Amino acid sequence: MFFFDRRTSFSQGFCENFNSYSNTTLAGTPCDAVCYPNLLNNWGGLNIDGIKYTDIGSQGGLGDYFLYLDDGPCSSGGTYSYNNTDFNGNWIDIVPQDGGCFCFDLKSFFIQTGTVTGFNSLRIYDGPDVCSSTVFATFVLSAPIDVSRGWVRICTRVALAESTGDLPSNSDGQRVVNTGVPADWDTLITGVRSVSFAVDVAGGDERWGIDNICISEKCDPNVGDDDDPPTEEGSYCCEGNNLVDNGNFEFGDAGFLSAYSNSTATYPGVVWRCIKCGCLWCNHYRSFVL
Asked: Does domain 14-216 have CATH number 3.40.50.10240?
C-alpha cells in the first residue's frame, strides 16, 4: 500500500494551546522594574508576581492547560508577561494577502477594581522585551472586561496600515502605535521581535488566563479551538463529493494499512502527488511512499 503525510501548499500560521505542558508552580520576578526572560519556557516577566501553566479554571477541564498570569502587589510600574521567541517574525508573511488575525482566548480570574475598560491587552515590540524596545503597538479592547464574562475570544487584525493612515481595527479593538506614525506600524508588523500581555491594568491586583494563541488566516469569533469540524463535503478541499473517500483525512487515518516495513536500510523515494477532488485540484499534498 502506501503511507500518507499530509502537507499544505500555503502557510497555516502557527498556534499555541499550551496542552503539551502540565501544571507548574508560579514563577515570578522581583518588584524592580527589570525584565527577566525565560521564567517559564520562553515567557518572561516584568514586575510580575507569578506565571504558570494550569488547567484549573480552563475551558476544557482536566488536561486543558493555559497560561496563568498573576499581577501581585508590585507598585513599581506596569506588569507584563512577554515572549521574545515563539511569535517573532514578519506577521504579514504568515497570513494570506487579504489579511488574517492574531487571536487568543482571555479570561479575567480577579480584578480588584471590578471592571477594566480600554484594556491594553496585547503589545508587539521592535525589541527583545518590554524594557528595551523603542517602537511598540498596543491593542486596546473595545469591550469592558470583568470576571463575569468568563473566557472570551479576542482577535486583532494582521494587516498593514490603510492608505488613509488608519491602523487595523475590528469590533474587538483598535491598534495604537506609540509613535503615532503609520509607517512605524508597517515596520513593526513585518518585523515583530517580542509580544507581551498586560497584567497590571488598573489599581490593585489582577489575575488572567491566556489560551489558544493563534496567527492565521482565521479571525474566529468563537472561544476555544480554531479547527473546523470534519464534514462529508471535503473540509480541506472543495465543496461536493471527493473522488477519494476521506482523502483529506478529515476523519483521521484509521483504515490506512501498509505491508511495508520502514527502516533506515530500506528508505524508499517519496513521490509527491495531489489528490483530485470532485470539483477542482486541491492545494493539499500527500506523499506516497512506494
From this structure: no
